[in-house]
Amino acid sequence: MFTITRLNILTPRIMYNIHDEGGVATYAQMDAMCHAAGVDLQKLASDIGADPFRLPFLWIYGRKDSTVSVMGSNIYPEDLEQCLYDEPELAALTHSFCLQLQEEPGGSVRPLFSFEVRSPINDELQRMFDERIVDRLRSLNADFREAMQEYKETVTPVIKLYSMGSGPFAGDTAKIKQTRILKAHGGSIMGSRSLRS
């Protein structure tokens, strides 16, 4: 929870919930977790010539309101839904979709959009989704557009196509509206929502 008290804000937000997901750990807790993972905080500090402050650790890693956030760009399920509606050819093929973050080998994250499609998946269909969804999202979402200019490789979404009832959509055929929590690699939970187009 944050309180914004700048004088140039017409209506200050008191106890404003920014819906970020994260946590706090004492220095001792973080030291114990790092030690269990084979990392020595004291050695890390001495390797860079620093004397560590024994302050608590604070981290933020995403949103808890079905929003995917990467490099300051918030991508909402409604954004992806609008991208589909703006592309009638893709919308006609799409049964449902979901979004989440994909962790890359170096620890960075990228948006991951998964689409359940009614037609056979081939290279041409993949290319259509890759190009059109990213173009539509760029024109629709100003944060995404700005982030693409500065951090294109990190922000460009991974788009995966699945045939009906496969991948993250397995077992959804009887549902009218799907809500799912997808578990990311490493055990962190990323909230994501899937809607029928």
Characterize the structure shown.
With 197 residues, the chain is an alpha+beta fold. It folds into two domains: 64 residues, no CATH class; 129 residues, GMP Synthetase, Chain A, domain 3 (2-Layer Sandwich). It is built from seven helices and ten strands. The strands form four sheets. Strands 7-6-5-10 form a four-stranded mixed sheet. Helix 3 crosses helix 5 and helix 5 crosses helix 6.
How far from one another are the termini? 34 Å
The total tally of domains equals 2
Radius of gyration: 20 Å
Assigned CATH class of the largest domain: Alpha Beta
Helix content: 25-40%
Measured by DSSP, the beta-strand proportion falls in 25-35%
Computed structural class: alpha+beta
Q: What's the count of strands? A: 10
Secondary-structure element series? EHHEEEHHEEHHHEEEE
Shape: globular
User: What is the CATH third-level topology name of the largest domain?
Assistant: GMP Synthetase, Chain A, domain 3
Quick gist of this model?
By secondary structure, the chain is an alpha+beta fold. 32% of the residues lie in helices and 28% in strands. The protein starts with 19 loop residues before the first strand and ends with a strand.
